[in-house]
Amino acid sequence: MKKSGGFVIGKSIFKKVLRIILLFLALFLFVKYREELPELPSRIYSVVTERMHAMEPAIGNFLENAGMEDAAAHFESENAIHLIMGSDVHYLSQSLTDNSEAFHEMALERSGKAMMYIEEITDAFLEEVSEEKPDALILSGDLTYYGETQSHRDLIGKLNALQDSGVPVLVIPGNHDVGFYEANSYSEAGQEEAERTFKGEFREFYYEFGPAQSLSVDENSFSYLYPLTDELGVLMIDANAGEWEDEISEETLTWIEEVLAEYADDMEILAVSHEPFLDFEDTDDAYTRIDKFDEILTLFGEYGVTYGFSGHVHYHDEMTENNFTNIVTSCISVYPLQYGEVTLDRGRLRYEPQYLNMPAWAEEHGIEDENLQNFWEYARRQQQIYAAGRDAREREESK
User: Fold this and answer.
1) CA distance 364 to 167
2) Which residues contact 161 (CB under 8 A, 6 or more apart)?
3) Rounded to an integer, what distance in angstroms lies between the CA atom of residue 188 and that of residue 117?
4) To 5 degrees, how large is the angle CA 380–CA 383–CA 386?
5) Contact by Cβ (8 Å): 382, 90
6) Rounded CA gap, 66 and 306, in Å?
């Protein structure tokens, strides 16, 4: 009995010691990785969904062969279409900046974007797209920082390489891309005016990224209807080709109606614009919505367009009104560095935000940079600094 009692006491002490060890281990891990905790759920989600998606084709085929078509519709088939949605890259040519502290402070004051690393962000994003091999990459505007011609030229070189690898690239301009008055170069000495891009030049620069392969191209804007398949098209609507930004001409609106009337009966059409179709900001400020949204949404309802994709507001959100769903993709160059993956399969559409993994990219390329190694925290700090400065300016202006 004494031996038995001693064993019980020893076992009890062992459990207490084990609990203390586990507690200290948990505390150590928390302190060591506390900066990465906000991203942990998204990383776990990404890993789990990636594994599940790898299993989907086999599961779907099994259910279809068993005569369970409804159940099979939940799983991916071999005919699934994969798209990657990117928005608001705001690329700036490295020839236009010395990445000095003066430029850093200016970039923070204006936007909170991680502009000191825009070259790395752009390269990492396009490399991920190249590895994923989607059926198309769709960039919904604000390709450049402020429409600098050299930024467009350098970005086109990167997009050409991606398109040459077999991934079609579809673009439209955002309000920052055409005729923007703040196109500048930046150095320690300050900023100087840089060459900026206008409507005709944008069309010449980017014609091979969508319009050249399209069923119809608007003569009055950079709008076009691109066929992903015989049954699926993407209507890219340029709302920034008018005399002012965020403007759709009557001629372009007529073209949209004519395209839908001609093709909507034979194919499902997805719409893409830079500015959202729906009112995500819940204000009367037209800046946050596409021009002539009432007329466009009426046409969508008439011709059965049920999905639209946008950017512009720099955060991911989704909204549905009257059987039309508008999905907004976040700005790729601000925290939390998101883009979107779209899967269309068996009449269903799935949108999943993805997170650009800059630490993994830096490690893969052998780049030892503390900010890149802790990039989510770095990008979040940039956004917080910008937000604090913006709020302070607004308080000062309200006095």
Assistant:
1) 22
2) 126
3) 17
4) 150
5) no
6) 32
